Amino acid sequence: MGSDFVTAGMAAGRRDPRGLPALRQLALRAIMDGRGVDSVILSAPASIAHYGAGPGPVGGLLIVTACNAHLLAAGAGTEADALWMRAAGLLRRGCALGYEGRDLDPRAVARLKTLLTPARLLDIGPQIARQIADNAAARP
Asked: Which InterPro entries did the record assign (predicted)?
């Protein structure tokens, strides 16, 4: 782990596998299975907070795969390209990748295509937003 990044495997869910982040990530993995993606990159602060362990870092990313979740935060002075290269390093080249199109810079999508050459790149943002809204509505 470099000094420019903070990485937390499964956020708080790793410390407590029965914790809320782990349950929410399980629900996210159901979306991933249903849409046929292996991994997802979350960039919206609300999504990072929902599926991570609280408020996400500004400019951060949450990478979720079938087995793990990694929270990446850009340190002071870290360029966006360095953060995306770090994210790409956590993912398998040629994977089917989901992302949040509404909250993702088009240049970031281009970077992902170059770095990962994904077999499939799919915007699953609407499903993520619906799941977060449904969860919020279900709270007492």
From this structure: Creatin/AminoP/Spt16_N
Query: Is residue 80 a contact partner of residue 59, using CB atoms and an 8 Å limit?
Result: yes
Structural domain boundaries, residue 78: 5-138
Q: Would you state the pLDDT for residue 75?
A: 65
CATH of the domain at 46: 3.40.350.10
pLDDT tens-digit map of 66-92: 999 999 887 655 677 788 888 889 999
Measured torsion, CA atoms of residues 93, 96, 100, 102, in degrees rounded to the nearest 10: 100
Q: How many CA atoms lie within 13 A of 119 on its CB side?
A: 10
Q: Tell me, what's the pLDDT at 13?
A: 36
- Burial letters 25-63, b for 16+ CB under 10 A, else e: bebbbebbeeeebbbbbbbbbbbbbbbbbeebbeebbbb
Q: What is the pTM of this model?
A: 0.80
CB 35 within 8 A of CB 124: yes
Q: How many domains does the chain have?
A: 1
